[in-house]
From TrEMBL, chains A, B, C, D:
Its EC number is 2.5.1.54. Residues 92-328 form the DAHP synthetase I/KDSA domain. It is an enzyme of class 2 (transferase). GO terms for molecular function: 3-deoxy-7-phosphoheptulonate synthase activity; aldehyde-lyase activity. NCBIfam families: DAHP_synth_Bsub (TIGR01361), PRK08673.1 (NF006421), PRK12595.1 (NF009239). Keywords: Transferase. Transmembrane segments: none annotated. This is 3-deoxy-7-phosphoheptulonate synthase. Pfam families: DAHP_synth_1 (PF00793). GO terms for biological process: aromatic amino acid family biosynthetic process. PANTHER family: PHOSPHO-2-DEHYDRO-3-DEOXYHEPTONATE ALDOLASE (PTHR43018). SUPFAM superfamilies: Aldolase.
Length: 337, 337, 337, 337
């Protein structure tokens, strides 16, 4: 059960609701987000909504049988809208584009990328300053100093930044210089990180785990939401299978399934999803046709010189052509809806 | 190495070519198809094409390093065209649609489906008369008598049929009543069946194995082609992964990869690929955007009463709407190319 | 429901049982094997055994809820014993060893292998004469002539042979020269082949599919059993996963699970299971500890010169050492039971 | 390249070695652990060991081509020994047993478990106080207070504890009350956590990722080792595959492969590996036969009342029987070596 509380609920009213739920064999967890106030009830017994729904202080009550409740579309039919100001929103019905290099390297690289994005009216730049690397001897990113430079330069051009956070202790120092916290595929079930991101008033882009199920992705989103942060986007980025012809297996099945299960936006990463430059475009277009709300991909002035992921990174001219095509495809998708 | 021979080559000329190849450490296999005459050379040494290429009787010679040679796009840049007469061709640049029930059930069902297809200008009807079933106690199809009825009724309306062949002994009796032999996912590596289909002058639709790699699919196609039959189409139908939210994981990555590796057409089966009726449409549209040359899917007048696969089968009205959308998407895809 | 019929049942008695089952909403399939006579009832309703169990002609009746019925341990608690004469039996409680090359190559190779087996008291020799190969240009085996030589030489030394059958048309010519028909991992769901093997009075070793589930393996066994052949052994040979450090992932979990679900013997193939010579021995010993009833593995006088699978094939000295260890481990396993 | 330095090396000597390595196109990373002092050289060029090996200050130099270097058996042939005092060591050649509940619940539960372990001479007790849970609404463990109670009670009986650490900020408060830090399957690639555990002077049990490769496990171990902590054990606990008959697929192939690649001990967790109580014992015995150095498993006085993982938890009597059998099997394994 999911109970939305009125903002002006009295303490004794809340206690009465909790007591009633307990009587119905439901344990309640109180959730206060930036946008709402909820009691999440977990239990298995069937109950009559009327037995509790008319208690004072309740705004609305929903029977939600999924194990994930707050991110479920069963109670919140309207899709989540994340507002970035300046008329920029991530939401169903708009095509969100996020592009940039795998790693932030230096000022010139950021400058060139911003020019490319501005010229093509792309409003989000992706780029990592803390890089998760399999080997401890690989380049691990420019760190916080790189982030500040990245943020300041983008801010000057109205570009929002998306960058990966890897651990709890990075959240506070990163927060002033970050527009969207990205949680990478290796951290999808780093529950402490999810808990802490629940306390932050900044949007989070949560990637599916390397071999994570769709349900696990939704559970992980529930961590952040129930921690207090409703500004969530999900990201399909390919799963690990036996096939070695592509880096990962981009699971586009996940898009229509997620779109039905949750009110959160679904962004697709075709760069990691297939991992081969010349195939990024068809997979991006396919993802939009499958219902994706946005595409995040890697582009670099000189992909062959990129510090990481060059083999799956588009040149600016490839990126420009793909942006034009993605918008055409999205327009048709809306027309067909 | 792949040597295309002239149709009027003399025996002694051929012997000279084989001897020269042997000298270069290449073992040759002679392949005669309905359309061409080849020597496929297998070996590892590098060689100078000029050392053999000017021998009499040779039409063309190609260095092809893939283990699959005849189906490789490296020697045959022009995509394969399969001609069914009456202006009907399966080829790159045309959207091929194949629709119908999982199983052929009775005359009324065929009749209704034909009406639906004719009304929507779909030229291929799919339907199984020999059904591979996990359990020996399940319905195994109407068999040869069903096939004859199916074929005759379709023929009367200019519809071509696509139906699964499961074993060598079925090929001869099925051949007069079959337009396209479908090889199912459980038979992709049934090498004797592939060998025998190489001897048939009828097109073959070869499905990817349940956990088959892209390379294994191409090898299996090589069996049929080297057996003598060039009229081949490949079919992506979803692979087996750990994810249980969908029946299979439709691997759309395979489309651009296959389109680069082979000159054969690539058809996608979203019905088996995701296995859930309401998501078949977005996956079909996505597949077209990823570059598929055609879509094969399940439709039935009353899906909930279908003898098999009802949960992934579209009603005729759903099918009609999807056909209209697929053509819109394909038109845009061509425009963007 | 599974009804064992008396051997001397009258036709009218059988009809009465079928009618009664039908009344209980069960469809029956009659199964006559070399060893028994059954009615397999498929249906979902609960029923009272007494309602049907006391009809004349019934030997015994079992409620078996698995989808596979005849191979289930729920009705046949005693494990299957396959008798090869000369005191040779495959059964729970005995360690069955099957060894030999991947492919039969020539007389000298067979001779050497037989000597090795006889010296170590191994009673089954494996060896392929029909080889399933991914590429059509690879060595496909010596065929029927090779089989005859193989069989005759082994027979002269009291060795039984295990060899792969790939298609229906091979069964009849192979039968006089084969002691155990092996069904390979690519043919586990070749249902026509399974049907035909049900009609043969020779034991069958059925391998698990390349990405086959345990349940699918049992279903496939049900095909053979319900076709009339009870002389069945199952074989775990590794499944396909994302891990590339080994050729396959030998799934030893399958052993205790299969041993509980079915009365059939479970043989393990560590050669294909891990695919790396030096690790075959620990996996064989582990399999025995997990409860395997036998081990089938590859050995060759000169593994590095073997026509196929050399990298996973043991030399005779390695084989000898492993045989000694396997018997030690099996003895301890029995002692601990 | 891996260079072991003398403990009394001079700064100018070290500088000379780094300069020489750089000349050979190798970048060096200095690693100081509790036990040694190393320069890890990463580069691709071949080099002559003599060109650098005789510089002053070098104890030994090894060519190690694996991407993981410090954990590789190619330079350190002798297996790692972790000494816990009181004659207790984890090492190759000894069977290490770690047993206990999934979650620490209360004092009585700890007391009962300790009695069981002491009676059976098991020296390590496992038990979680911080629990990673898919759903935010599940029981997340007793936390630090629970840990203190757990530690103190075990210490009084000479039992060492193994408990999971989930995030960097837990390390310092946990350290005084922890004998072995366990890194769970969801944190195998939580690189910041690995970095920090490199700075701790306490043994670490590193679990393989849910769909982690063997190489990724070794890379993650390299993080901890290169961070300064050599006291490492690896743990195989089952991987995610398409098979649903077991909770995970315990990959015993990994044991002989890991034992050849690394000098670290390999512990196996059959409880999570198969996830079904009655099959834990055969998998534990199989793991020992495959070469495992130890077994970690779940046991509880009343498994059916356990706070988590009850379905895969042994009762004390089952545990006792299994301990006895594991020691028998390990004795035979040593005899056969």
């Amino acid at each position: 059960m999911l109970i939305q509380l009125k903002q002006d609920i009295q303490l004794d009213q809340k206690a009465a609701i909790v007591a009633k739920a307990s009587e119905l064999k439901y344990k309640t967890t109180e959730v206060v987000t930036q946008a709402g106030h909820y009691l999440v009830g977990t239990g298995k017994a069937e109950f009559d909504v009327r037995a509790i729904g008319n208690l004072p202080g309740i705004k609305d009550i929903h029977i939600v049988s999924d194990e994930y409740r707050l991110v479920s579309r069963k109670w919140k039919v309207n899709p989540t809208v994340i507002d970035f100001g300046d008329g920029l929103q991530v939401k169903e019905g708009e095509l969100t584009l996020m592009a940039g290099p795998c790693s932030i390297e230096n000022e010139a690289q950021i400058e060139k990328t911003i020019q490319h994005l501005v010229a093509n009216n792309v409003r989000f730049m992706r780029g990592g300053v803390f890089k998760p690397r399999s080997s401890p001897y690989s380049f691990r990113g420019l760190g916080l100093e790189g982030l500040k430079m990245f943020y300041d330069m983008c801010r000057a051009h109205g570009i929002k930044i998306v960058t990966e956070v890897m651990q709890v202790s990075q959240i506070a120092p990163m927060e002033p210089y970050t527009d969207v916290f990205q949680v990478g595929a290796r951290n999808t079930q780093n529950f402490n990180l999810l808990d802490e991101l629940g306390k932050v008033d900044k949007p989070v882009l949560l990637k599916r785990g390397i071999s994570g199920t769709i349900d696990e992705l939704l559970y992980s989103a529930e961590y952040i939401f129930s921690g207090g942060n409703e500004k969530l986007m999900l990201c399909e980025r390919g799963i690990r299978t036996y096939e070695t012809a592509s880096r990962n297996t981009l699971d586009l099945n996940a898009i229509p399934i997620l779109k039905e299960k949750t009110h959160l936006s679904v962004i697709v990463d075709p760069s990691h999803g297939i991992g081969i430059r010349e195939y990024v475009e068809p997979m991006a277009l396919a993802a939009i046709m499958a219902g994706a709300d946005g595409i995040i991909y890697e582009t670099h002035e000189k992909p062959e010189e990129a510090a990481s992921d060059g083999a799956q990174t588009l040149s600016f001219s490839e990126s420009e052509r793909m942006i034009w095509k993605m918008r055409k495809v999205f327009a048709l998708k809306k027309e067909l809806a």
